[in-house]
Amino acid sequence: MEISTAKIKALAKTHGFDLVGITDNLDFSEPRSLAIEHINKKNMVGLDWYTSSRVIRGTSPSELLPEVKSIISLGVNYYKNNHNDKSMSGSVALYAQDKDYHRLLKKMMRNLVLDINDNINTDIIAKWYVDDGPMLDKSVAFKSGIGWYGKNSNILTKAYGSWVLLGQILTNLELKPDIPIKTNCGTCTLCIDHCPTGAIIEPYIVKNSLCISYLTIEHKGPIPIEMRKDIGNWIFGCDICQEVCPVNKFAKPATTTGLKLSTFSNLDLSEILLMDESSFKIKFAGTPIMRTKLSGLKRNTCIVIGNRRLFSCIPSLEKSIRDEDSVVRSHSAWALGQFESNFTNNILKSALNSEEEDSVKNEIQLAISK
Protein backbone atom coordinates (compact mmCIF):
# COMPACT_ATOMS: atom_id res chain seq x y z
CA MET A 1 0.00 0.00 0.00
CA GLU A 2 2.32 2.71 -1.29
CA ILE A 3 1.69 6.14 -2.74
CA SER A 4 4.10 9.05 -2.88
CA THR A 5 3.57 12.32 -1.04
CA ALA A 6 3.94 14.12 -4.36
CA LYS A 7 1.06 12.06 -5.80
CA ILE A 8 -1.12 12.84 -2.78
CA LYS A 9 -0.49 16.55 -3.27
CA ALA A 10 -1.18 16.38 -6.99
CA LEU A 11 -4.47 14.58 -6.38
CA ALA A 12 -5.47 17.12 -3.74
CA LYS A 13 -4.97 19.96 -6.21
CA THR A 14 -7.27 18.25 -8.73
CA HIS A 15 -9.98 18.18 -6.04
CA GLY A 16 -9.82 21.94 -5.51
CA PHE A 17 -7.43 22.21 -2.57
CA ASP A 18 -5.07 25.16 -2.87
CA LEU A 19 -2.69 24.08 -0.11
CA VAL A 20 -1.49 20.64 0.95
CA GLY A 21 0.95 19.73 3.71
CA ILE A 22 1.88 16.53 5.53
CA THR A 23 2.91 15.85 9.11
CA ASP A 24 3.85 12.66 10.86
CA ASN A 25 4.47 14.51 14.11
CA LEU A 26 1.53 13.32 16.19
CA ASP A 27 2.67 14.99 19.41
CA PHE A 28 0.19 17.79 20.10
CA SER A 29 1.02 18.15 23.80
CA GLU A 30 2.20 21.78 23.47
CA PRO A 31 -0.88 23.14 21.63
CA ARG A 32 -3.02 21.08 24.02
CA SER A 33 -1.48 22.82 27.04
CA LEU A 34 -1.88 26.25 25.45
CA ALA A 35 -5.53 25.60 24.53
CA ILE A 36 -6.40 24.40 28.04
CA GLU A 37 -4.58 27.41 29.46
CA HIS A 38 -6.80 29.71 27.34
CA ILE A 39 -9.87 27.95 28.72
CA ASN A 40 -8.65 28.29 32.31
CA LYS A 41 -7.88 31.99 31.79
CA LYS A 42 -11.48 32.56 30.64
CA ASN A 43 -10.42 33.54 27.12
CA MET A 44 -12.99 31.14 25.65
CA VAL A 45 -15.99 32.21 27.75
CA GLY A 46 -19.22 31.83 25.79
CA LEU A 47 -18.13 28.78 23.81
CA ASP A 48 -19.52 26.17 26.15
CA TRP A 49 -18.74 23.37 23.70
CA TYR A 50 -15.01 24.21 23.76
CA THR A 51 -14.03 22.19 26.81
CA SER A 52 -10.80 20.69 28.12
CA SER A 53 -12.06 17.19 27.31
CA ARG A 54 -12.72 18.25 23.72
CA VAL A 55 -9.21 19.71 23.46
CA ILE A 56 -7.66 16.54 24.88
CA ARG A 57 -9.56 14.41 22.37
CA GLY A 58 -8.67 16.75 19.51
CA THR A 59 -4.97 16.59 20.35
CA SER A 60 -4.90 12.80 20.55
CA PRO A 61 -4.79 11.63 16.90
CA SER A 62 -4.41 7.97 17.85
CA GLU A 63 -7.65 8.13 19.84
CA LEU A 64 -9.48 9.56 16.83
CA LEU A 65 -7.90 6.97 14.51
CA PRO A 66 -5.84 4.21 16.20
CA GLU A 67 -4.07 3.36 12.93
CA VAL A 68 -2.97 6.94 12.18
CA LYS A 69 0.57 7.42 10.87
CA SER A 70 0.26 10.73 9.00
CA ILE A 71 -2.05 13.73 8.79
CA ILE A 72 -2.77 15.43 5.48
CA SER A 73 -3.43 19.12 6.11
CA LEU A 74 -5.50 20.92 3.47
CA GLY A 75 -6.32 24.54 2.78
CA VAL A 76 -8.81 26.23 0.46
CA ASN A 77 -8.56 29.89 -0.48
CA TYR A 78 -11.90 31.67 0.08
CA TYR A 79 -10.97 35.28 -0.65
CA LYS A 80 -13.46 37.42 -2.56
CA ASN A 81 -12.57 40.95 -3.62
CA ASN A 82 -16.06 42.30 -3.18
CA HIS A 83 -16.23 44.38 -0.02
CA ASN A 84 -18.51 47.33 -0.51
CA ASP A 85 -20.50 49.55 1.78
CA LYS A 86 -23.96 49.94 0.31
CA SER A 87 -25.99 52.66 1.96
CA MET A 88 -28.69 50.33 3.27
CA SER A 89 -26.72 47.20 4.10
CA GLY A 90 -24.60 45.54 6.77
CA SER A 91 -21.27 43.78 6.25
CA VAL A 92 -20.84 40.00 6.35
CA ALA A 93 -17.52 38.21 6.99
CA LEU A 94 -16.12 36.76 3.77
CA TYR A 95 -16.31 33.12 4.85
CA ALA A 96 -20.04 33.42 5.52
CA GLN A 97 -21.09 34.99 2.24
CA ASP A 98 -22.41 31.81 0.65
CA LYS A 99 -23.28 28.22 1.49
CA ASP A 100 -21.75 26.68 4.62
CA TYR A 101 -18.22 25.58 3.74
CA HIS A 102 -18.15 22.65 6.18
CA ARG A 103 -20.23 20.41 3.95
CA LEU A 104 -18.27 21.42 0.84
CA LEU A 105 -14.84 20.73 2.36
CA LYS A 106 -15.91 17.40 3.84
CA LYS A 107 -17.21 16.31 0.43
CA MET A 108 -13.93 17.40 -1.18
CA MET A 109 -11.90 15.42 1.38
CA ARG A 110 -14.10 12.36 0.99
CA ASN A 111 -13.62 12.44 -2.78
CA LEU A 112 -9.85 12.84 -2.32
CA VAL A 113 -9.73 9.74 -0.11
CA LEU A 114 -11.73 7.77 -2.69
CA ASP A 115 -9.31 8.94 -5.38
CA ILE A 116 -6.34 7.81 -3.29
CA ASN A 117 -8.01 4.42 -2.87
CA ASP A 118 -8.40 4.12 -6.64
CA ASN A 119 -4.73 4.94 -7.15
CA ILE A 120 -3.46 2.22 -4.83
CA ASN A 121 -6.25 -0.30 -5.52
CA THR A 122 -7.13 -0.68 -1.86
CA ASP A 123 -9.03 1.22 0.82
CA ILE A 124 -6.89 3.28 3.16
CA ILE A 125 -7.99 3.91 6.72
CA ALA A 126 -8.89 7.58 7.08
CA LYS A 127 -10.95 10.13 8.98
CA TRP A 128 -11.39 13.73 7.96
CA TYR A 129 -12.38 16.88 9.80
CA VAL A 130 -13.07 20.57 9.31
CA ASP A 131 -13.10 23.14 12.12
CA ASP A 132 -16.35 21.77 13.56
CA GLY A 133 -14.45 18.57 14.40
CA PRO A 134 -12.34 18.01 17.51
CA MET A 135 -8.86 18.50 15.99
CA LEU A 136 -6.93 21.73 16.50
CA ASP A 137 -6.83 22.50 12.79
CA LYS A 138 -4.42 25.43 13.09
CA SER A 139 -1.91 23.27 14.93
CA VAL A 140 -2.12 20.66 12.17
CA ALA A 141 -1.65 23.36 9.50
CA PHE A 142 1.40 24.73 11.31
CA LYS A 143 3.00 21.31 11.79
CA SER A 144 2.36 20.51 8.13
CA GLY A 145 4.10 23.61 6.83
CA ILE A 146 0.96 25.19 5.37
CA GLY A 147 1.42 28.42 7.31
CA TRP A 148 2.46 30.13 10.50
CA TYR A 149 0.57 31.71 13.37
CA GLY A 150 -0.40 35.35 12.96
CA LYS A 151 -0.75 37.57 16.01
CA ASN A 152 -4.53 37.52 15.49
CA SER A 153 -4.27 33.71 16.07
CA ASN A 154 -5.11 32.93 12.41
CA ILE A 155 -2.88 30.78 10.24
CA LEU A 156 -1.08 32.91 7.64
CA THR A 157 0.04 31.40 4.33
CA LYS A 158 2.50 32.76 1.81
CA ALA A 159 0.18 32.40 -1.18
CA TYR A 160 -3.25 33.23 0.26
CA GLY A 161 -2.66 35.05 3.52
CA SER A 162 -5.18 34.10 6.19
CA TRP A 163 -8.11 33.74 3.78
CA VAL A 164 -7.98 29.94 3.99
CA LEU A 165 -10.39 27.27 5.19
CA LEU A 166 -8.63 24.34 6.83
CA GLY A 167 -9.29 20.62 6.82
CA GLN A 168 -7.28 17.54 7.77
CA ILE A 169 -7.27 13.85 6.90
CA LEU A 170 -5.92 11.36 9.42
CA THR A 171 -4.64 8.28 7.61
CA ASN A 172 -2.71 5.06 8.07
CA LEU A 173 -0.49 5.98 5.09
CA GLU A 174 3.17 6.60 5.86
CA LEU A 175 3.93 9.84 4.03
CA LYS A 176 6.97 12.09 3.81
CA PRO A 177 6.36 15.03 6.18
CA ASP A 178 6.77 18.71 5.37
CA ILE A 179 8.78 21.09 7.53
CA PRO A 180 6.98 23.82 9.56
CA ILE A 181 7.46 27.35 8.20
CA LYS A 182 9.75 29.45 10.39
CA THR A 183 8.33 32.79 9.19
CA ASN A 184 6.65 35.03 11.76
CA CYS A 185 5.00 38.45 11.95
CA GLY A 186 8.08 40.20 13.29
CA THR A 187 7.29 43.55 14.89
CA CYS A 188 4.00 44.07 13.03
CA THR A 189 1.00 44.69 15.32
CA LEU A 190 -1.55 46.04 12.83
CA CYS A 191 -4.16 43.40 13.69
CA ILE A 192 -3.86 44.25 17.38
CA ASP A 193 -3.88 48.01 16.78
CA HIS A 194 -6.98 47.97 14.54
CA CYS A 195 -9.22 45.62 16.55
CA PRO A 196 -12.07 47.94 17.65
CA THR A 197 -12.83 46.03 20.83
CA GLY A 198 -9.26 45.16 21.87
CA ALA A 199 -10.08 41.47 21.57
CA ILE A 200 -6.47 40.55 20.70
CA ILE A 201 -5.31 41.11 24.25
CA GLU A 202 -1.73 40.17 23.42
CA PRO A 203 0.04 38.63 20.42
CA TYR A 204 -1.56 35.29 19.46
CA ILE A 205 -4.25 35.50 22.15
CA VAL A 206 -7.85 36.50 21.41
CA LYS A 207 -10.28 37.04 24.27
CA ASN A 208 -13.42 35.50 22.85
CA SER A 209 -15.95 37.62 24.75
CA LEU A 210 -14.52 40.82 23.19
CA CYS A 211 -14.41 39.58 19.60
CA ILE A 212 -16.95 41.06 17.17
CA SER A 213 -17.26 37.70 15.41
CA TYR A 214 -18.23 36.05 18.69
CA LEU A 215 -20.60 38.86 19.70
CA THR A 216 -22.48 38.87 16.40
CA ILE A 217 -22.64 35.09 15.93
CA GLU A 218 -22.20 32.88 18.98
CA HIS A 219 -23.27 35.27 21.73
CA LYS A 220 -26.92 34.94 22.71
CA GLY A 221 -28.94 37.68 24.35
CA PRO A 222 -28.17 41.40 24.62
CA ILE A 223 -24.82 42.77 23.48
CA PRO A 224 -23.33 45.01 26.19
CA ILE A 225 -24.21 48.65 25.53
CA GLU A 226 -20.60 49.78 25.85
CA MET A 227 -19.57 47.46 22.98
CA ARG A 228 -22.25 48.33 20.44
CA LYS A 229 -20.48 51.31 18.89
CA ASP A 230 -17.40 49.17 18.22
CA ILE A 231 -19.41 46.71 16.13
CA GLY A 232 -19.67 49.36 13.44
CA ASN A 233 -21.23 47.96 10.26
CA TRP A 234 -20.69 44.25 10.98
CA ILE A 235 -23.95 42.35 10.89
CA PHE A 236 -22.34 38.88 10.89
CA GLY A 237 -18.74 38.21 11.85
CA CYS A 238 -15.77 40.51 11.35
CA ASP A 239 -12.74 40.58 9.02
CA ILE A 240 -10.91 43.67 10.30
CA CYS A 241 -7.84 41.87 11.67
CA GLN A 242 -7.50 40.12 8.31
CA GLU A 243 -8.16 43.20 6.19
CA VAL A 244 -5.31 45.15 7.78
CA CYS A 245 -2.80 42.27 7.69
CA PRO A 246 0.07 43.00 5.27
CA VAL A 247 0.33 39.30 4.39
CA ASN A 248 -3.16 39.56 2.88
CA LYS A 249 -2.23 42.48 0.67
CA PHE A 250 -1.80 40.33 -2.44
CA ALA A 251 -4.67 37.91 -1.83
CA LYS A 252 -6.11 36.28 -4.94
CA PRO A 253 -9.83 35.54 -5.44
CA ALA A 254 -10.94 31.96 -4.80
CA THR A 255 -11.14 29.51 -7.69
CA THR A 256 -12.70 26.50 -5.95
CA THR A 257 -16.24 25.86 -7.16
CA GLY A 258 -18.72 26.80 -4.46
CA LEU A 259 -16.53 29.51 -2.94
CA LYS A 260 -16.36 31.95 -5.85
CA LEU A 261 -19.81 33.51 -5.61
CA SER A 262 -21.01 35.92 -2.94
CA THR A 263 -24.72 35.73 -2.27
CA PHE A 264 -24.63 37.73 0.96
CA SER A 265 -21.70 40.15 0.77
CA ASN A 266 -24.10 42.74 2.20
CA LEU A 267 -27.53 42.32 3.77
CA ASP A 268 -30.43 44.73 3.46
CA LEU A 269 -31.10 46.06 6.95
CA SER A 270 -34.78 46.96 6.67
CA GLU A 271 -35.53 43.62 5.02
CA ILE A 272 -34.01 41.76 7.97
CA LEU A 273 -35.98 43.67 10.60
CA LEU A 274 -39.22 42.83 8.79
CA MET A 275 -38.42 39.12 8.41
CA ASP A 276 -40.39 36.36 10.06
CA GLU A 277 -38.97 32.93 10.89
CA SER A 278 -40.16 31.42 7.62
CA SER A 279 -38.60 34.05 5.36
CA PHE A 280 -35.38 33.89 7.41
CA LYS A 281 -35.07 30.15 6.80
CA ILE A 282 -35.91 30.46 3.11
CA LYS A 283 -33.25 33.12 2.55
CA PHE A 284 -30.44 31.69 4.69
CA ALA A 285 -30.98 27.91 4.78
CA GLY A 286 -27.68 26.10 4.37
CA THR A 287 -25.57 29.19 5.12
CA PRO A 288 -23.46 30.10 8.18
CA ILE A 289 -25.87 32.97 8.90
CA MET A 290 -28.33 30.44 10.34
CA ARG A 291 -25.99 30.15 13.36
CA THR A 292 -26.97 33.54 14.76
CA LYS A 293 -30.70 32.77 14.46
CA LEU A 294 -33.25 35.39 13.44
CA SER A 295 -33.22 37.10 16.84
CA GLY A 296 -29.44 37.51 16.74
CA LEU A 297 -29.46 38.81 13.17
CA LYS A 298 -32.15 41.38 14.00
CA ARG A 299 -30.23 42.39 17.12
CA ASN A 300 -27.07 42.96 15.07
CA THR A 301 -29.07 44.84 12.45
CA CYS A 302 -30.40 47.28 15.02
CA ILE A 303 -26.85 48.01 16.17
CA VAL A 304 -25.65 48.71 12.63
CA ILE A 305 -28.62 51.01 11.93
CA GLY A 306 -27.98 52.90 15.16
CA ASN A 307 -24.27 53.21 14.49
CA ARG A 308 -24.87 54.62 11.03
CA ARG A 309 -27.98 56.62 11.96
CA LEU A 310 -29.85 55.46 8.87
CA PHE A 311 -32.98 57.60 8.94
CA SER A 312 -34.55 55.57 6.13
CA CYS A 313 -34.61 52.57 8.49
CA ILE A 314 -36.63 54.31 11.21
CA PRO A 315 -39.97 52.84 9.97
CA SER A 316 -38.49 49.35 10.29
CA LEU A 317 -37.24 50.12 13.80
CA GLU A 318 -40.70 51.40 14.70
CA LYS A 319 -42.02 47.93 13.89
CA SER A 320 -39.14 45.95 15.43
CA ILE A 321 -39.46 47.77 18.77
CA ARG A 322 -42.69 45.78 19.08
CA ASP A 323 -41.08 42.49 18.00
CA GLU A 324 -42.08 39.40 20.00
CA ASP A 325 -38.42 38.92 21.03
CA SER A 326 -37.35 41.10 23.95
CA VAL A 327 -33.72 41.25 22.79
CA VAL A 328 -34.82 42.65 19.44
CA ARG A 329 -37.07 45.20 21.16
CA SER A 330 -34.30 46.39 23.48
CA HIS A 331 -31.78 46.80 20.65
CA SER A 332 -34.39 48.55 18.53
CA ALA A 333 -34.78 51.01 21.38
CA TRP A 334 -31.03 51.57 21.54
CA ALA A 335 -30.90 52.17 17.79
CA LEU A 336 -33.75 54.68 17.92
CA GLY A 337 -31.96 56.47 20.75
CA GLN A 338 -28.95 57.09 18.51
CA PHE A 339 -30.98 59.46 16.31
CA GLU A 340 -31.65 61.87 19.19
CA SER A 341 -34.69 63.38 17.50
CA ASN A 342 -38.18 64.30 18.65
CA PHE A 343 -39.65 61.91 16.09
CA THR A 344 -37.73 58.87 17.38
CA ASN A 345 -38.32 59.95 20.99
CA ASN A 346 -42.07 59.85 20.36
CA ILE A 347 -41.72 56.30 18.99
CA LEU A 348 -39.80 55.32 22.12
CA LYS A 349 -42.33 56.90 24.48
CA SER A 350 -45.17 55.11 22.73
CA ALA A 351 -43.33 51.80 23.01
CA LEU A 352 -42.58 52.42 26.69
CA ASN A 353 -46.30 52.76 27.45
CA SER A 354 -47.02 49.28 26.15
CA GLU A 355 -43.80 47.51 27.22
CA GLU A 356 -44.09 45.01 30.07
CA GLU A 357 -40.55 43.62 30.39
CA ASP A 358 -38.26 45.52 32.76
CA SER A 359 -35.05 44.96 30.78
CA VAL A 360 -36.64 46.47 27.68
CA LYS A 361 -38.15 49.32 29.66
CA ASN A 362 -34.68 50.19 30.94
CA GLU A 363 -33.29 50.26 27.40
CA ILE A 364 -36.14 52.48 26.23
CA GLN A 365 -35.69 54.88 29.13
CA LEU A 366 -31.93 55.10 28.47
CA ALA A 367 -32.65 55.79 24.80
CA ILE A 368 -35.12 58.54 25.63
CA SER A 369 -32.67 60.16 28.04
CA LYS A 370 -30.18 60.68 25.19
What is this structure, in a nutshell?
The protein has helices at 5-14, 29-40, 52-58, 61-64, 101-120, 137-143, 190-194, 212-218, 225-231, 240-243, 269-273, 277-284, 293-308, 314-320, 326-337, 342-354, 358-369; strands at residues 19-23, 70-77, 89-92, 126-129, 148-149, 155-156, 164-171, 200-202, 205-206, 234-236, 266-268.
Unreliable spans: none
N to C succession of SSEs? HEHHHEEHEHEEEHEEHHEHEHHHHHHH
Q: Order of strands across the biggest sheet?
A: 1-2-7-4
**How many whole angstroms does the radius of gyration measure?**
23 Å
Look at the helices and sheets and give the structural class. alpha+beta
Helix content: 40-55%
* Number of E strands: 11
Number of DSSP helical runs: 17
- Characterize the main sheet: 4 strands, antiparallel
Query: How would you sum up the global shape?
Result: elongated
Distance between the termini: 72 Å
Mean pLDDT level: 94
Strand content: 5-15%
Can you describe this structure?
This protein is of the alpha+beta class. It is built from 17 helices and eleven strands. Among the domains are: 5-81 and 98-171, no CATH class; 274-370, Leucine-rich Repeat Variant (Alpha Horseshoe). The strands form four sheets. A four-stranded antiparallel beta sheet has the order 1-2-7-4, with helices on both faces. Strands 10-3-11 form a three-stranded mixed beta sheet. It is elongated and about 75 Å long. Helix content is 42%, strand content 12%. The protein has helices at 5-14, 29-40, 52-58, 61-64, 101-120, 137-143, 190-194, 212-218, 225-231, 240-243, 269-273, 277-284, 293-308, 314-320, 326-337, 342-354, 358-369; strands at 19-23, 70-77, 89-92, 126-129, 148-149, 155-156, 164-171, 200-202, 205-206, 234-236, 266-268. A hairpin with a 5-residue loop joins strand 5 (148-149) and strand 6 (155-156).
